[in-house]
Automatic annotation (TrEMBL):
Record: residues binding substrate: 141-143, 178, 185-187, 238, 260, 266-269
Signal peptide annotation: none
Protein name, UniProt field: ATP-dependent 6-phosphofructokinase
PROSITE patterns hit by this protein: PHOSPHOFRUCTOKINASE
Amino acids binding ATP: 26, 87-88, 117-120
Any one GO molecular function term: identical protein binding
Active-site feature positions: 143
GO cellular component entries: 6-phosphofructokinase complex
Natural source organism: Deinococcus hopiensis KR-140
E.C. number: 2.7.1.11
């Protein structure tokens, strides 16, 4: 029953005195809540926090400063990341990482917390392997595509944002009796698409995990029309070959019906995080600091079935998290 312990009861056997935290890769709503949790958990245990700006590129350039509990005040509800983020090319070189490691040594940092997706975890993993800096990952990406956690920070909010757009497009689609093909984010994963398809009552969903031929949609639309449906919603994950435009072209060619394509894009990465993302971020931020205090390194903190779990960083990209096949089946059955 560790969860019932007062935080002050958590010992610090690794004798951590100072930690660094950064956000990297695509931003995700809830990253600020995670930074806040890291800072406040650390402060509670008399550990100082160094905030690194602009991800690994800031670490390489030494763009760092001490941040305290007041610096993260009034941030839990804000989208984006107060530490800023970037995708760093310099970090892909051993020289770039050596410079970053030297900066951490200069600042007297005992461990680094990386909030991001698998690309960011690669960056942290190499830093630890080559320079011995203990690294802990916190899963922050709207795509929900990381093995080792049921959900990633930002996913819940992205789904709500996309769903809100789908509901609005349905209004205009129904009024004009049109077919709307809506593309949601997910470069390699269909988690957002599938969730939004079921919650938005879509007629069909296309995800990269099932690269079925696009032509099947022609019959689905024809059947819908035959059943008296004047408008349809088709959801396509960005990573499905050909994207929404490919699906729309196939429908127009195969049925002669008019379609509209709507690509929701980066709007899905913004906005105030919903409560599930704020709470997940708060739990994982706390867990990341505790992991370092306990002497863990090279792991991502995640939440599975309500419990905090630790997964080796390399497994987060070596193993894949499948979409829910039950949900996929359910989406099909309900779209009659
Ligand atoms: O953060 C993940 C993600 O949103 C993907 O779904 C998308 O393909 C990608 O980021 C786009 O990122 P950017 O425009 O920052 O390169």
């Amino acid at each position: 029953m560790t969860d019932l312990l007062h935080p002050a009861d958590h010992a610090n056997p690794a004798a951590i005195k100072r930690l660094a935290v950064l956000t990297s890769g695509g931003d995700a709503p809830g990253m600020n809540a995670a930074i806040r949790a890291v800072v406040r958990t650390a402060t509670h245990h008399d550990i100082e926090i160094v905030g690194v700006r602009r991800g690994f590129s800031g670490l390489h350039r030494g763009d760092m400063r001490i941040i305290g509990p007041r610096d993260v005040a009034n941030t839990i509800q804000r989208g984006g990341t107060i530490l800023l983020t970037a995708r760093s090319h310099t970090w892909r070189t051993p020289e770039g990482r050596a410079k970053g490691a030297a900066n951490l040594r200069e600042w007297g940092v005992d461990g680094l917390i990386v909030i991001g997706g698998d690309g960011s975890f690669h960056g942290g993993y190499f830093l630890q392997e080559e320079h011995g800096v203990p690294v802990i990952g916190i899963p922050g990406t709207i795509d929900n595509d990381l093995y080792g956690t049921d959900h990633t920070i930002g996913y819940f909010t992205a789904v709500e944002t996309a769903l809100d757009a789908v509901d609005k497009l349905r209004d205009t689609g129904a009024s004009h009796e049109r077919i709307f093909v809506i593309e949601v984010m997910g470069r390699h994963a269909g988690h957002i698409a599938l969730e939004v398809a079921v919650a938005g009552g879509a007629e069909e969903v296309f995800i990269p995990e099932d690269p079925k031929p696009v032509d099947g949609v022609v019959q689905i639309v024809k059947d819908s029309v035959a059943k008296g449906k004047a408008s349809s919603i088709i959801i396509v994950a960005e990573g499905y070959p050909g994207g929404a435009t490919g699906v729309s072209d196939a429908i127009e060619k195969g049925t002669g019906l008019e379609t509209r394509v709507s690509i929701l894009g980066h709007i899905q990465r913004g906005g105030s995080p919903v409560s599930s993302d704020r709470v997940l971020a708060s739990r994982l931020g706390e867990a990341a600091v505790y992991a370092l205090m306990d002497g863990k390194k090279g792991v991502m903190v995640g939440r599975e079935n309500g419990q905090i779990v630790h997964t080796p960083l390399h497994e987060t990209w070596e193993k894949s998290k499948d979409v829910s096949r039950d949900l996929y089946r359910c989406a099909k059955m309900l779209s009659v």
